[in-house]
Amino acid sequence: MEIDEDGINCESFPLSYNSIVTMLAIAINDLCLYDEKSEYPCLNVFPLGIDLMWVAREFTGIIMNLLTNSANGPWIDKGLLILLYLSDNVEAQLTLEILDKKIKGPLGDEKEFPASRVLEIISSVASLSDISNVRFLSHQLISSLLEMCSDEVRMFAFTELLERCPYPSMKTASIGLFKNQINGAFNSKKDRVS
Fold it and tell me: Residue 73 falls within a domain, yes or no?
């Protein structure tokens, strides 16, 4: 193997998609979970000025691919951590137009896939994982994504989850999510009236 004059290039030192996701998870872990009382200092791996919308646009496909492959078990929680962080920190509303947009893959053999499949993938993880933490984080992520949705997309999501989802456990969980959304809407309306 020959190294070019700069010493490092993509061909000499390729990064796998799992490595990229792991690096993102480490950076977010360092940023969010660092405690000032910790014996280890914060590494400041995640640049403060990074555009999280760019991270979401560029890496959601890679993360979804990670979640769909059961062989990636040790990385699934890292993918969920990244997605939860993005859902909490990216200011965006998910609209019907966004559902039709393509997300860069890979996702299996596909180079791109419709954004509407994200809910399908996360609900599959929530239903099929043997790890209770992964199921819990997946449900939290679905709930967080529903908060980002326009009313039309929220109705689409609940239709998908309640009518078309093949997993009985997800249908049951969807009823709870639906109740939470209704309760949140009533509480929001009360706050506006007061």
Answer: yes
